[in-house]
Batch of 3 targets.
Target 1
Amino acid sequence: MEKAYTSPLKIALIFCLLLCVSSHRAAAKERLRRGIDLSSTHSLISDTRLPGDFFPLNYTLDLRPKLSESTFTGKVRIFVQCNETSDRITLHAHHELQIERSDIKLQRILDSEDSDELNSTEVKIRRASHTPKKPIFVIYLADTVKNGTLLELEIAFSGMIWESAEGLFKGSYLNKNGTKTEFLVTTFKPNNARRLFPCFDEPSFKVPFDFSLSRPEEYHTLFNSDPFSTEPLDGEPGTVVDHFTSIPKISVFSLGFLTSKLVLIKDDTLVKNEEQKVEIYVQPGMENAFPTLYQKVHTVIKAVEDFWGVKYAICKLKIVGLPGLTAVKPIDNWGLIIFKESELLQASHFMLAQEMVYQFLTHSATPLWWNDAHITRAMAGFLAATIAKEHTEEFDEKWPMTTLYSLYYEFSKRYPHSRITGMKQESICSKTELFLRMINYTFGFETFRKAMQNFYEEKRCATFQSENIWNSLTIQAHRDQVLDKSISVNEIAESWISKDRLPVVTIERNYDKKEAKVSQKVYLRERPHDVPEQEKMLWFIPLIVVTEDKLDFTDTKPRLWVKKTRETTMTGLPEASKFIIVNPEEIGPFPVNYDVRNWNLLAEFLQTENGRSNIPIFTKAKLLHDAWNLAYGGHLSFATAFNMTLFMRDEKDHLVWNPVFTMIDHIGRHIDSSAVHNKFETYVRILLTPLYERLGSEAQPSEEHWKENLRSLSKTFLCRAGYKPCIERAQAAFATWRNAKDPDAETPVENQYICPVFKWGTREEWEFGLQRVINFPKERKQSERTYLLKNLAGCPAQTEKIERLLNITILEENGNFTENDIFLIFSMLSGGSNGYTTLFNFLSNNWDTIRQRFESKTNLWDSLISASTGVFTTQEGYDMVSALYVKRQGEFGSAEHIIEKSLKNIKEETKWSDENLPVIEQWLDDYLKTANTSANKFMG
């Protein structure tokens, strides 16, 4: 173990610690004081907080892992300060960490904060034990310890090295010679340091660390800091101990190390005699596989430093490409970032920038508690996107649309996230990221950056809460006169981040008075719109306005802020013949609705070459996306929404096309049981065929990535609509598979071709696919079988194919299909009217047999009732389900509430169909009269 302190060194250390006591005591008080918590209902992790009667001042950790035995031993010395008189010390330790009472030593160094006399005496311990079912270890003292007492706590411990990526774990990879090579690595974030050693495992405790670690001499260790000495380990030949330079105040989750045989890549971007402050490590033989990585890293570091206004505080940043790493995300530690080798090979500026931001806003300035950690992820995402967009075209200009659209869909549901905690965590981070983007635009980048620099200067090497960031933004915005002094950013942030909802802003123009009524309400797509307390939900909304007579999309200063009021008036609008656009470029995360006249002015303008070239891409995409989703949610006529698509026949930008495919999917699924569906399919063909033929059927060398994506999307939808060239290619590929000597050895057909064959192909082709699922070899990837089964069930347009699948799996109980397979089949059949109608009839015709088969399988029974009755959208469907409900009253068992819910939902969907299908049909009839509807390229 490590060498003991000599007395003079210990005394010097104690006096250094005493200098820090007052600041730690203030931090301890801050830890217990909670301000406005914008995410109290969305805690990112569940954890047991320590009582706060003791807090750490310094750690000395000495670790002895045995890689071959998958075990470790260690000793930690912690100087702790008593914050409240107590007879026990409570800290974190995982229940699998072995600690004996005899392994604990406790010395009193200073009696209380009122005393300056050193008094090193033993403190007697009554007992010590783990707390059942909690990662807590309690040391019970024989006597109480007074407030202000300084103690030296030493604990020896031992444990297992695991292969799962938590705490200390090991992994391996095959090197270039095919030899298995092991490594040892840690991941402590957010609260896994307790798996390795007893500690105060909370982010608010930021203290200095001293660290020593043993390793086989043929390995080397990367740690947060560099080693200052290495010596042989007594009694263990071939093993050495590295002693590392002390690290300043950090939280325990920021610690990290990697023991491996990786090698350093030389930084060829450095000028002669320049110190190498970034080091990249990879496996031997891969040194030349990262030719541009150093340049990317230097670009990112400079951009992040420019934003925060300070140089990176750590002398050396180590970046690792580790083969065999099983962690889902990169492991970010203070000064040490570990990627999977495959991810580092494809490292983008965005990915590198995200991890670099964490060095500043997690490891340096640290959230006081984990329910403020969403702000660090949001800031990392926002800054990384900003940096990537400035230096590269990595996003294909898709950010923030992809993030924003997913939030629009999720928050417009009756029950967002379906009460799934993980989805809540993701969405609150995404929403906060978009909120930061909105503030950046409305205040201006310089105000935003200066506020963040002021915040970081105050909280560097300390802890913070979200309100500290909002306060810094408020002060700077008021100073720069970009925000009314009656408003604080804290108020604005609370209105956006505390709700699982987003607003929709409606603009109703008074063309004679050149003004408009502006109103806000909760944005809802899913019916019925009966969300509790929606009338109480209001937001601070910036109104940024662009007018046709002044198409300036660079001025992002709000014309006014809607201050959490239901309605307000906007004046100074242009004459009646000119349109207005509110919230251009999706600056704020909210859709905007207009009166029909303004929508039609926009639709007409976009159909001109001047209009398409003068409206920016994001704004065109927003107008299209808003119109369709507002119509889908019942806030706008579908005739108006369809008019907004007329300009797409000449639109070439992929970003504007992206919402079109979602629209086709949503509307197509909703109306596919009605007579309107065939007309809608014709409209889709007319819309997409020119785009697909303009892109070409095959990828060209070195073409932009977006073209490949857009071609794939258009091909998928056209194939679904029966585009003959696509079907013919799919069937040709399928024929090769059918003629293979061993068709079960692989699936030599592109995924995009499987569904068209199962939908438009022959019964024999579908039957061939069925046999491939039945005979699928166990040694192959089961995900490939799952994909086949999904398409086998979800794609056919013919009832007899679906009936055949249901007969085999349910009535014949074919042993090649598991219960999970049946769940999957039900789910896929609920995706289209032919599927769920066939399933409903199958249930009705075979009720007694199926009820008996599923008698003890309530989950399957419930899933069947839900899939077969819950997706109808017309009165005819309602009558069918209602008749079954009456006929089988009392026989639904556990699914009784499911069919009752289905009937309520169908009634709502029927209202939607009654209101919207006539409008959609009338528009399609008028459009198709003048459109080229030649069907010679499509299946009948």
Target 2
Amino acid sequence: MPSGNLLSRRKRSWRANELVSRSTLQLLDFDDGSPPEHAWRRKLSSHANRLKEFNVTFREAIRMMKLGLRLWSYIREEASHGRKAPIDPFTRESNRPSASQGVPLGGMGSGSISRGFRGEFKHWQITPGYCEMSPVMANQFSIFVSRGGNKKYASVLAPGQLDGLKKSRDDGISSWDWKLKGDRSTYHALFPRAWTVYDGEPDPELKVSCRQISPFIPHNYQESSLPVSVFVYTLVNTGKEKAKVSLLMTWANSIGGLSHHTGGHVNEPFIGENGVSGVLLHHKTANNNPPVTFAIAACENQNVNVTVLPVFGLSGESSITARGMWGTMVQDGSFDQDNFNAGASMPSSLGDTVCAAVSASTWVEPHGRCTVVFALAWSSPKVKFKKGSEYCRRYTKFYGTSPRSAVNLVQDALMKYKHWEEAIDKWQTPILSDERLPEWYKITLFNELYFLVAGGTVWIDSESLVVDADNKLNSSLLEDSDSPLRDSTFNSTAPLIGFDPHEIDDKENVGKFLYMEGIEYFMWCTYDVHFYASFALLELFPKIELSIQRDFARAVLREDNTRVRFLADGTWGIRKVIGAVAHDLGAHDPWHELNAYNIHDTSRWKDLNPKFVLQIYRDFSATGDMSFGKDVWPAVCTAMEYMEQFDHDGDGMVENDGFPDQTYDAWTVQGVSAYCGCLWLAALQAAAALARSLGHDDYAERCMLRFAKAKSVFEARLWNGSYFNYDNGTSYSSRSIQADQLAGQWYTASSGLPPLFDEDRIKCTLQKIFDYNVMRVKGGRMGAVNGMHPNGKVDETCMQSREIWTGVTYSLAATMLLHGMEHQAFTTAEGIYITGWSEEGYGYWFQTPEAWTVDGHYRSLIYMRPLAIWAMQCALSPPKSILEAPRVNTMDRAHISPGTLQFLQDSVRKITPKNGCFGNNVFNWDC
């Protein structure tokens, strides 16, 4: 683990020719075998250090003791019903996470498998909400080379020091040749592709590149849903003898963990079309989860011969063992051709692990080149949630629900992957070739998108909603009938006011999409976090973004009277209130049972409703979709009206209620606050702009009248001459410099609306944050700390005030870009790259956490909010519709009568102290 002082050295990403010889890159430079100039890189011999999780201070532990006891009780109650609690800080994986991640496999929403940079397949998320982190060590690529007489090489294409290998020493895998040291092999990642270059390992005269390709293609709503990946091997023989090269793909009939021991698994060989052949592995999942079928395959042509071994075992009791399989490959480099006629195997016995292998063999002439292509698909057509709802995944709309659709998936992948790459290149090249952008930014921008695959995403076909709706009420009546808490916490059968279970809303015609807040925070589409992450979806898959917004718009008009207990204070309330924006779309019954989060009563939060209005207007202005604006308008009006109850003194500005009633759910806020107040001002302006666009001029005028009044209150109560105070309370945090205080202005500028404040005040605030929250933490090499006291010390009020939030840092950088502060913006965001992605940092690549502390302890790996880096790209290249929108101040378009104007002026005088809020320094900004 690097110490903090190592972060004082700034290093750019490794160039390809710094890790791989230039001659090797030139030799591989055909058929896209050579890695790109811009990529995230590691040697396979790099040490995968263990990551350090955060811990609370003694004071924090005492303060949260009652919450902890209530949470522990709730987790146990959920477990008794076979369910996972949305937040469980008490259960930890047996294997501590390490800095070993790489680009995940497949498209979005069909289950995901990650692949470490050293080659291990891990982080299995086939079942919604569950992530098995451990690698399945039998899943490997291996190579066998023979030249002339006795010159032979054989090795698994992964370094022998893999941690998981130690646990496999008794199952036959250790008998394989793990000869790769990895010091001459390198990994290059640019999501959704990755290149592994073996520069003379294990054969000194053979150069090998493995290119991993997944169909993540912006604006392509069909192929981006496919559960498939392709592995293209480029071979270059630099020797004087021709070489027989056999590549081997082995795969266990497993979805991670101990699922391969549950029995009933069946393997069968297949011969498809266009030379594609391989093995199907039918996996019978545990706990009544839907089955999964894997397909491993290779493409045969005049130069490549494909053979298979449908079944081998990992124990000595198997008819063909892992040791025997390996011996056959060393001896022959292929399997018996008759294996294709073997048919389906007998179901595996309880406790046995069955695997399959596909071999692709070719001859490579001296100084010759060759390409060998494999594919992996996993067909899990059904998604079943714990409270009974079952849907078909999005890809089944194009491939059907048969387990054998895995054959069609691998066939199409092997035929179409070049077209996928053309589309990926067309998308990425303009950004990669922009010389104005720092190299680290280009790399991180694309690689942070890993979350849309590995973030537990679920993408369903909307037609399956009809089936679920017909059965929903009947199935829910049968659930948990004997639970003593059925009429309170666990009752999911309460009527949903304003909700018709037969109503299907898929106007975007892209199905329904869910992504988790994080693998440790099991809630779908958590809205206060989606506020930051949604820029990625808006830029790349705007129809999905509009679909999610429609889901939340419908939820605004719904009520769920189910009583739940809020764990922070032990009080009881109802699950969902009409007018309140949902915190999330649920956990175990998404779209039907909202608000899985139950720490606080989120109907009292002050940021969710403004964030809803801001996202609606941003998406409306970016897409120009008038029908979308009209459809969500009633929800916007309802959400704005709901907020009026939080204006306790009638001055137009909402107040916080003295508890953590916003996304910083451990950081107490009192009275007028910079974060929520700024969001409210921005929401008033956005609501007015949307109303004006839809022809509701009277509503727009009312919003702008309130905006003018609330703005005066906000500035008078919080502006201190150089930034806005955290809140206007009397706590030690009240004068803290909050990194996220201009979140409302960020959205205002992103949507093409006029600024909320004078430009000088905005820039002064941003400079203050940069000077304190960014540069006074490890010299700006870690991102922006959430809270900083004016004396330059980190705000230690609570866990969250002292944390650096990765997504907030990216959004802060985006705000700086929107106001012409490019140097500050890229310096701020580079801190996330240095700490999270560089070799000098802590190893958070492809698992960017929600937060870390100044000493490098993380909280919540694989988190949604870091997708906010795409807000920076939206700031650099705004949507065309926003660029071309008329620059008219919304206030100028509100017809304010002289009497109303006098009323506003009188109101301002009443709230402003006679001697000036801050003495003589109100306009002498200390920047």
Target 3
Amino acid sequence: MPTILLLLTLLGVLYSHGHGMSREEKRKFRNQVVEMFDHAYQNYMDHAYPADELMPLTCRGRVRGLEPSRGDVDDALGKFSLTLIDTLDTLVLLNKTTEFEAAVRKVLSDVTLDNDIVVSVFETNIRVLGGLLGGHSMALMLKERGEHMQWYQDELLHMAKDLGLRLLPAFNTSSGLPYPRVNLKHGVWGPDSRTGTETDTCTACAGTIILEFAALSRYTGDPVFEAHARRAMDFLWEKRQRNSNLVGTTINIHSGEWVRRDSGVGAGIDSYYEYLLKAYILLGDDMFLQRFNIHYASIMKYISQPPLLLDVHIHKPLLPARTWMDSLLAFFPGLQVLKGDIRPAIETHEMLYQVTKKHNFLPEAFTTDFRVHWAQHPLRPEFAESTYFLYKATGDPYYLEAGRTILDNLNRFARVPCGFAAMKDVRTGSHEDRMDSFFLAEMFKYLFLLFAEDEELLFDVEDYVFTTEAHFLPLSLSTAPHSSSIPLNKTSNEELDDSNFDWTCPNTRLLFPDPAFPRNLREPIRSAVDRSCPRPAPYREPGMGRPPLRAQDFMANNPEHLELLRRMGVSLIHLKDGRVQLVQHPSQAVSTVAAEDGVRFMQEMMELSSQQQKEQLPPRAIQIVSHPFFGRVVLTAGPAQFGTDLSKSSTGVRGFVTIAEPYSGCSEITNAEYVQGHIALLQRGQCMFAEKARHIQKAGAIGGIVIDDNEGSSSDTAPLFQMAGDGRSTDDITLPLLFLFHKEGNILLEALKEYREVEVLLSDKARDRAAIFKGKPLPGSLIEGSVDVHEAEGDCTTEATTPTSFEPVGQSQTSTLELDESAHEEAAPSQEDVGPAAKDISATVDVGPQEETPCPADGGRSKTERDSEKGEESERDKHSGSRSVDQLLADWREDLEAFQQMERDEL
């Protein structure tokens, strides 16, 4: 005991010498968390309640059926005031007991569950059933204290049981695995249910039931809920791959066959592992711990490659299944803390932190070299969750700084007048009209706990287990009466292995007597992320005494470039459709060295095309900077192939908006005196985009915004347009022109209608609001001291001035490449296709079609299109040099299927 006291005393001294955060600083950040919560919660109550969610850009509630469908994402909405129920126990944690009491009364008086609507069993369980049970546990705690809720008679529990009974029909399968969806009113069978035909579910969907259902059984004394949840968990365990002890991502609920055999710790599987360990913690059943430890050993053997966590195939666990990671795996370091395996938790968290600092938020998916794979960020709380658990485990103030980074980024980039808006694209800072209920249920809980002192809490959180939605279930439920009919440890003949219990409940304080130890683990990972975008040293062309012509620098109208091409044996052929074909004849080069340089140039063009398929003219940002928006609202805009390139502007273009007359912009502007010096708003249609740009430029406009005339169109569901020229030179157009779909354009028009004077900033990405307000020059990146624009985007490339993409069109005596801006699913030829210098190589350069072409940037695609294409491109970028087209297409199809399943899993 004296030794332990000495260690703890020494640890406190080491933390106090300039490394920690003072109590006053922590209190300031804790109060900031409360203020941010109030901003989000009050806007939901003022503008959205009783709807399920708040739409923070348009300041109204999201009611299912009244808004354009978002596919499976909407299955979380059941017309049961989702956000209010999900937030109940957060109110208590933040010491808002009066608001909690009022919220409970609203739930009891206003919310109905008898709705003819199909909902996700998984989402409804963790958000609504978990929210009701968490609210019930808080109500009991407050009632016992004698200050609040004295009138409470288990009303939330009665509502929870009603909901549990409505979810039970989903478990009526031969396997015991639940259907993924259920109709709250009609169950799963019959013509009225509109469900019951599904065959597949995700592992997490079936394996994230036990905490809520067991708690419901223990609270009510009805064993049926816990029994069904245990049966589903037992079936998943029995269906694990016996050699690898891993589970797949998607399973057939009738046959038990694995539909998707890739295995990881992210989307589709994540909370299955979480619930195995937490079921042991809550229920005290050793078998859950035994199963978790067996799975965990396999995860650390096959999936964990610190600091990375990479998916593998369950039958071939040494074979990687993908080259990217999704943001949901950010919960795993927190789970490792509960397990007691702190070292890999520190390493993975540090990797996630560095990716967060590179992109301001964790992208929905990112590659193993830390580039953006899917650019969205729906304000997920998993990284904050792991940050809190690591701080609890280590006491290292480094994690308080990580929490402050989360707070700063939320306030600077996600905060809008009506709440907090999800990020549509972390690279541009554009927003999505979305604030999920988990943002209030989880994010503010973990951030508040991170900065709060124990004496500032109304109750001891150590007496509760957090569900995957961060709802509080009391550990006392482990001793609550439950029916002996619940099978305990009857599904496996395996005996417990004591070795699997090591470090299950460690005293984590004693793991780190030296505070420098975690820092030593973090430093190499920080360097690894920083090195992920190396800048190659410029090389000089052998034999020519000057730098060679690089593909990204090539311009078809530059005489010097044409001379360099001629020396390398590359000639140009101007095609009738306005494109330029590049053809290399090695025999016509001035020397063997020059011919080899020509081959390298053509290979660079191929590599450039692969990069530019996702990078060509990425989505731009329109940031509303005037009152009351102050830069908080950012709209995703499509770029133009002509005019000012905003990616090369350090300040962007800032000005007040004015509606041009005529609105179409297809003839001379009649209100030029108002357009002059302003940014003109135009309607799409009736003429070419370049013609609109010329008319407003002649009227003196400094920029233009074209708004789609197709009512209801949105970048959420339609491809974002890249506006093309009109078939002739557009060098005379010098102002920037951006495109907005109808939904985003209406936000701008409504703001103009209400406030009369609306000032916007046109740029490549949202800019630092502090600099905007102070009138300082706008920085070229989102955060002061951050990496440059391209590194902030995580793309590790230089902006190219050459055309956009290649398409292999045949290989006989020559290899032909076409740069076609409308192509989306091409694969670049392999290195073997280029051949030695003896072969001729031909490439066609597209200088711009004469009609609108879809912009392949992800900011404007429908979620499925956008992300499936990114999956294809990421795989292609890595392997295009050595793999066949058939292999690439197979990988693309696998990634597409993976994303579509992840959509169903609520990614």
